[in-house]
Structures are given as structure tokens and as C-alpha cells.
């Protein structure tokens, strides 16, 4: 019969590469099957005694403290022995469990750490900075390989998990904004929840049901310049995950299923970088490359539209910009396509005029606006050559992003040299 555990219970907890350590269960997460109602999975949030660190572990990585005391208490590691001594005080009820955070802080004073030997340090769990580097490396690898496989395909349980994480992050932001200190919520505790986010596969339906993206973004904005390096590094990590999730759901919104493989170097960002600095927030990465950051033109002179083709367009009726819009050539500059090969030439002209008008209002020079307009419209038409409902849907989504695109952030995005494969 499998052993059961309860909240606030004393246990031994095991992390790979480290000895069994006295810990206290702070929370238990249970996942139920929607059809049967049976519990299919348990995860245990444990706080290590004598160390300012926590972890999320399966039931196979914890065991009863009293029953296994003789097995795991025999150690030459003086810091483990110190933690066991403190754990015994908790176990006998001499020290209240609520004071664990304060006890750990008292143990981990600078004077205490100065006496530590290198061999002892190697035998203990990593500090937060090392853990952050490890999780960031794992995130970079997942991003570069597009390998975000959720460990739980149950939408309901995933949503509950995300909303729980969102509540923790939002609560931390609230306390920080009111200059209130909560000893039970530290950077070490937050690290656990960011680690949980790394295990979740983002989907449009999942993220529409919660505000986790907003919470992670606010966390980045609040702590990216914080004096605490742990919070600052967590903010950078959250921002990197935010960028990936945002781009991933954009691809799903556009209905494109092929994988995105992004070079790791794209995710090297400065403290003041933001998702808004990208050229387009509603397009998939391949489309950003094609529609907003076109490839360099060949040196050979390109064929320009004939004057008689331009003359066929209606005459202007309004402002100077609108007048120039009517002179836009509506033929693709990537081939010999003519209006005869376009399913709906009138709709195409209307789309081109709408796009170029917005670009010119956003301070693009006429030549550049024409160039981008033709490329964007051509890519829209590739998605729906019949130019029916799908073409109109993509066009409406594109217009929202084009309104946010001005010459300054376009040049900035070009300077970043996005190498999207």
C-alpha cells in the first residue's frame, strides 16, 4: 500500500545528485481525471530545513521522516547534521513550523557560510543563481528545439496549475507594490513556480482563460532593474518565457501548424528589450521574415510597373497621403503576376491602399511603404489564393499590427537582424 502524506508533515526529500534532506511539505497538488474523478497524480511542494530552498517532487522522492531516520541521519556532512538537528526540534514540536523561514534565514547567515568548505558546498543543493542558470539553459534548449511537451494534457488541470501560479505571482507583485514583506514568499519560492511554467505547453485556448502572460510581463517590468539579483534574474527568465509563449500562440491563432525553429541567439535580450520592439506581434516567425523584414534586393535592376498600369487606378479624392496611395502599383514585385491571375483584383487594390495608407501615416517613405505593402499583400494571398473568408480574416489581423508599426521600431527590428529559419 502506498504511503500517504499530509501538508506540514515532516519528510525526507531527495533531489537527484544530493543526499536525502529533512523537509516539510508546504503544499500538495492533486490532479483528478475528469471522467472518473480519480486522482491520477500528486506533486509535493517541500521546503528544505536548514536551507533557503524549495522544490516540487513526486511521491517517489519523499519518505516518512521518523521511519527512515536511522537510514538517512548518518552523515558526515555537518550542514546536513545541523539541518537534522533543527528538523528534530520541529518534529518534537519545540519549534513551530510557521517559523521555518526565519529559522532557515538564521542558519544561513554570512558568518555561517564563510566557514563552509568546498567539499561541503558540493554536497549541498545548488543556490538560486545556479538553479536559475540551469532552468534558463533548459529554456533555451526547449526554445531552440521547439520541444515544449506538456507533462499533463488535461486542460482543466493545466488551467488550475496556471491560475495557481498566476495567483502567486500577482500576490507577490501586490505585496511589493505596498512595500509589504512576506517571509513565506521569497525568490526561492518564486523559482519553483517559474519552473512549473517551463513544463507547460502554451495554447491559445489555455491562455485565453487566464492572465498569466500579463502577470509574467508585469513581473518583468517590476523587477528587471531590481537591486536583488535573484529577482532581477527571475524577471529576465520570465520575460524570455513570455516572448516564446506570445509568439507560439500567434502561430496557433494564424492556424499554422508547422514547427518554428528559432536560433538560440534570438533570445539574448537586454534589460530594456520588450516584445513590443518586434516588428509584428500577430504574425508567425516565418511570416515576420517574409512580410516585415524582406530579404535584401538583388543588385540587378528590378522591373518597375508600367505607367499605363498605374494610370488604370481611380483618381484621388482626399488628402495628400490618400492621393499618393492611389498611385500604388498593385502588381507583385516577386514575379510576373497580373490582375488576370488574381482571384479578386478589386479586393487586392483595396487591401493595398489600406496597408500603404497606414504605413505612410506611420512615417514610412513612399518607396518603402510600397515595397512592404506588396510583400505583405502577396503573402496574405498565398494563404488564400481564392481571396475569400480566410484572406479577409488574415487581412484584419494584419491591419491591427501594421497600425503599431512605425519607421523607428521597423529600423530597430532590422538592426536586431532577426535570423528566422
UniProtKB/TrEMBL annotation:
SUPFAM superfamilies: Tudor/PWWP/MBT. Residues 297-318 are annotated as: Disordered. Gene3D superfamilies: 2.30.30.140. InterPro entries: PWWP_dom (IPR000313). PROSITE patterns: PWWP. It comes from the Eukaryota. Residues 7-68 form the PWWP domain. This is PWWP domain-containing protein. It comes from Blepharisma stoltei.
Amino acid at each position: 500500500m502506498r504511503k500517504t502524506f499530509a501538508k506540514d508533515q515532516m519528510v525526507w526529500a531527495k533531489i537527484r545528485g544530493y543526499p536525502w534532506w529533512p523537509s516539510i511539505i508546504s503544499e500538495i497538488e492533486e490532479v483528478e481525471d475528469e471522467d472518473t474523478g480519480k486522482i491520477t497524480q500528486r506533486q509535493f511542494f517541500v521546503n528544505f530545513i536548514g536551507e533557503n530552498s524549495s522544490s516540487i517532487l513526486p511521491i517517489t522522492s519523499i519518505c516518512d521522516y521518523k521511519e527512515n531516520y536511522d537510514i538517512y541521519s548518518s552523515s558526515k556532512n555537518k550542514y546536513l547534521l545541523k539541518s537534522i538537528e533543527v528538523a528534530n526540534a520541529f518534529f518534537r514540536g519545540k519549534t513551530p513550523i510557521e517559523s521555518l523561514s526565519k529559522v532557515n534565514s538564521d542558519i544561513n547567515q554570512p558568518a555561517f557560510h564563510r566557514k563552509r568548505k568546498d567539499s561541503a558546498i558540493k554536497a549541498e543543493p545548488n543556490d538560486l543563481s545556479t538553479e536559475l542558470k540551469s532552468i534558463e539553459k533548459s529554456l533555451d534548449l526547449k526554445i531552440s528545439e521547439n520541444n515544449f511537451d506538456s507533462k499533463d494534457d488535461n486542460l482543466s488541470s493545466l488551467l488550475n496549475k496556471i491560475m495557481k501560479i498566476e495567483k502567486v505571482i500577482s500576490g507577490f507583485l501586490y505585496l511589493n507594490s505596498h512595500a509589504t514583506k512576506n517571509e513565506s514568499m521569497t525568490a526561492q519560492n518564486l523559482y519553483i513556480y517559474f519552473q512549473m511554467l517551463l513544463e507547460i505547453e502554451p495554447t491559445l485556448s489555455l491562455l485565453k482563460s487566464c492572465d498569466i502572460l500579463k502577470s509574467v510581463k508585469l513581473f518583468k517590468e517590476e523587477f528587471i532593474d531590481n537591486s536583488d539579483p535573484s529577482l532581477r534574474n527571475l524577471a529576465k527568465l520570465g520575460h524570455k518565457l513570455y516572448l516564446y509563449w506570445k509568439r507560439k500562440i500567434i502561430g496557433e491563432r494564424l492556424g499554422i501548424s508547422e514547427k518554428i525553429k528559432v536560433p538560440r541567439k534570438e533570445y539574448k535580450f537586454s534589460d530594456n528589450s520588450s516584445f513590443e520592439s518586434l516588428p509584428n506581434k500577430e504574425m508567425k516567425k516565418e511570416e515576420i521574415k517574409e512580410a516585415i523584414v524582406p530579404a535584401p534586393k538583388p543588385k540587378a535592376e528590378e522591373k518597375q510597373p508600367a505607367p499605363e498600369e498605374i494610370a488604370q487606378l481611380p483618381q484621388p479624392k482626399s488628402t495628400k497621403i490618400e492621393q499618393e496611395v492611389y498611385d500604388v502599383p498593385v502588381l507583385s514585385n516577386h514575379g510576373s503576376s497580373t490582375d488576370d491571375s488574381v482571384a479578386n483584383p478589386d479586393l487586392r487594390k483595396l487591401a493595398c491602399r489600406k496597408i500603404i495608407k497606414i504605413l505612410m501615416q506611420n512615417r514610412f517613405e513612399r518607396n518603402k511603404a510600397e515595397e512592404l505593402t506588396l510583400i505583405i499583400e502577396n503573402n496574405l494571398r498565398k494563404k488564400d489564393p481564392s481571396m475569400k473568408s480566410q484572406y479577409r480574416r488574415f487581412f484584419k489581423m494584419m491591419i491591427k499590427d501594421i497600425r503599431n508599426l512605425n519607421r523607428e521600431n521597423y529600423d530597430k527590428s532590422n538592426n536586431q537582424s532577426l535570423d528566422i529559419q
